[in-house]
## 1
Amino acid sequence: MRLRWLVVAGWIGGLGCGGGDDSTDARDVPPETGDGLEVAADADADADAGGDADARPDAEDGEEDAAEDGVPDDGAGDADAEDDGAEIPDVCAGVDCSSLDGVCVTGACDPATGACRTEPRADGLPCDDRDACTDGDACRAGACRGTRPGDTCAEALPIAEVSGLTVYPGDFSCARNDYRLSCGRTIFGTLPDRVYRLELTAPRTVRLSVERANRETLELRGADCETGAALGCDDDGGSPATDLTWIFGYYPPGVYHVFVKEEDPGSYELNVLIDPEDHCEYALDLGDLSTSPGVGSASGTETTGAADDASTSCGGAGASDEMYRFRLSSRTLLRIELQSSGGMSDLVAAVARGTCPAGPLGADELFCAAGTPIRASQVFEPGEYSFLVDGATAGAAGRYDFRLVRAYGDVVLIGHDFAARRASADALLVNAVLTAEDFDVVDVLEYVQYADVAPGGEAANARAAIVAAMSPPALRTARFETLADSGSLAARLPAADVLLIHEQELRPDTATLDAIGAAWAAVLPAWVETGGTVILLDSAAAETWRLLAPSGLVPGLGAGTDATGTQLAVVSASDPVARGVSTPYIAPADSTTFAVATGTSVVQQTTTGATVVLHRAVP
């Protein structure tokens, strides 16, 4: 009956506080409906009105408590009933959480615990993440975050589908390494990259190129930016054929992604040319080919979709063509290579004066060849030039590959006797033959008029060294002819790639060599300037050098001294003639030095510094 006594005590207390006083305190506040205390008050009211009537309501109350709680009423609920009538304190009253305020969060009190916590401010609220590499900083889920334009596929920089040339300046100062490309040197896998996105709504001719960068890689992928296969990839990682980095092709509608990597991060320009309409205005500038190691065609180069702007004496009327421009700062021997890689059985390659020829090239045409593959060399004077790639027949169009490379004639002096085979001498001779411009079969014309041509003799040993290195399955092979009459040189030389002058130890006298050399001076320089290679083998006693001295191909060429048994060393390891030559080594019998005024000294005596092997590129 604890509940009854609590109610009675409350009623008595009410009487003691003065009946007519309207003042109230917490005890005067009536309980909320349904809170148990109200039930108890109703029961007391019944008791006051009817004597014994209070017994049954108490029983009923107990039954209700048991039914609701699932356990008998032990009186504990009476205290709860009294507490429910009291004011619940506000645990956050007076709590200051402003110390937790941040750019994208605000401090707030937890009403359940009274502890301070942070709540995110509205997403999109401008902020500054203090990172100079991000743009569009805004609050997102309580954190200030910006985007890194061009850093990943998700943040690719847009390329507009606009006809003509658009230049996109960029730099790698904020770039990170996110992707590995399909071409380029191994180091490119660790370099920073930039990503662009291009969406084509119609078939387009697209040319991508990178300028003002150093050792860069350029790759084009389709819609699958992260792992898609490369549609084109080009790099200028030091190869003579890739000094210019570009991708060119005719592409169907769709989404494409462009990647740029660079070995020496800095600024660059991504040039995007879409649907060029004027071959002169948008002709790709290949640069100064007198100073460049060379340029090669981009991945996907083709004439499909191009206009017919020019024709040549070799054909090209009515066929789609592509025009390039280049310049030469000095007299240059240019190696021209062109071949079809799909769609065209025959091609036309032409070089013309000026940078904007149109229609028939006519008098401006300086070089023209048709077929596939085309491989030729020609000397051009300093000036501005255009390079035309055309189909040989009307309506022809397709893919192609080209190379324009500065070529050189070569003169190599080797002061070694070939009376016996020696590894160092053999390697020097083979390397000298490989400087020839021809890429397949190298035609070697051997001058043997006063040489040792006996079986197993010097000429035979030299030839055997070349054959051993340049026979199938070698990619480049050698084919030999002999010249036993010096007077026939002018007639025989045009068909040769290499003139190999054996040691003329059987000459009657030095005057004979001087006379031959004077006659050859009218023929050799022009042949060498167009890519020919002269190799001269000599000994101190033979003085074969006299055959070349009058031509001026080696300025200051004169007699040296006997170098037999002296220590020799390779001093120009990067020269192609020095490839694979062990150093130092001992000079074999009858070796000689040369007096020279210019050229690259490849092998020297270690004690005197005198030249034993010389290589000179001409011009």
## 2
Amino acid sequence: MKRLLPLLLLFVSFSASAQEGTIRYDRVVKIDIDLPPEMESMRDQIPTENKTAMLLHFNEFESVMQAAPKEESDDREVRGNGFMFRMGGQQGENITYVNHDEGLITEKRDFMGRTFLIEDAQPLLAWKLTGEQSEYIGYAVQKATAVRDSSTIEAWFSPQIPVAIGPERFSGLPGAILVLSVNEGQLSFSATEISLESVAEGAIVAPKEGRKVTQEQFDEIMEEKRKEMEAQFGRRGNGARVIMRRN
């Protein structure tokens, strides 16, 4: 019994420390390229995905995710045949704050030069555990799947970090989500670094800047702007169409 007590105290200490920290993810969005025949020779020069490093700070009750500070410019530009394609980090100053205790999300989104503040209830996904287990960057992980609208979601989470957190709006599993894929990788998150040290005071706060809208209102604004751009640019002349899926 005396031997078990130190082990029990060590386990309790580890569990407590694992409920706070920072996870660094690579966020990848696949890009569908639709080029006219006269521009097919440029296809190999155009990236097929956009990658952004993201940081998720968390504690037992709340989390906040935003783009990691850039160490160098990751903008890419391709020119030719009167065509110019430019792509940089798409996340900019976007911030996703989740109050897991109250089930609320506050999200700051920059879109077309305007800043919006989306306030919404935390999505509840009907996760199904598959029973599959593996190891990922030193953590034991388990697989779970879910369906949201028409999107299929696959996640690997670790009970070793016993907090129901995940990237952006994805959460609700009995452990931190370390790997997540939507629609077979159209959108994906992969943890690259995990720190279970205390988060700096003031690092986990809800954004307050921007015009307040609901998620439905923001989706309508995005759809309206998309239609405007299609009407303005469309496929005129040597125009190319680049589609970045939002899931």
## 3
Amino acid sequence: MSTVSSLKRLSAGFLFALALVCFAPTALAQTIPPTWDHYWAYHVLPSPPPPPPVILHDQFGMWPHTVGQLLLFQNPVRKEHAGGIFPITRPDLHYTWWQIDPIPSPRPFVEVENQFGRMRLDVFESAFLWNPALKNEHGSPPVANHYKCYTCAGPPLQVPVHLWDQFQQRTVQVLTPRFLCNPAAKQAASGLVYPIVDAEQHYVVYEIDQGTGIFTAVVTDQFVSDWQLAPIGPDRYLAVPSLKHDPTPAHRNSWGRLKSLYR
């Protein structure tokens, strides 16, 4: 079946299912919930054959996407930073990073808030789909958010943190934000819809100084079952749980008052 015909099949029932999911932003707390894990991302080989196309609906909109290679895999990670310890709360929940076709973001920038502070990110185009995954276990993937990740740019950090996951531990330098990841509803080629579980839980992915460790694992997500990843590594990114603050639009009456000052 062609990619075009596969994408057409995905539309059936999707809008109805998405009507059950609220995408409107709610009032955000000013602290990150302690149950939101950090993740340590690694390059992987070999990649399985590309899976069928999907439809993704996040807070920026809804688009069909072709899916490419599996390029990265991430573990939940314990992070120590500035005297604070951020433990792992869901050791079963991992994520696979699948390439998706680049579509420009309709939002040129957002403001985000995490344990490194509040900052503006310029947002560019879609790059990855995160699938919830199991590592070295049999069974169904964990029930959790999917994520649609966009390339982004923001202020560099140069902050040391100590990371400890199921592969290794070491102190890394957190460098530059590279991706903004929004929770997303996903419709598979079968028509099955995976809704958003937590609409507030976002991630900012930072580049880190690269290590040298090489590891192996068997991975299961909604695209592959018991897939052998060997090698895994070196490590590349730290995904930090974040709140996303959309820019506040200017109200017409406020704009009118502003213009009146210059008449």
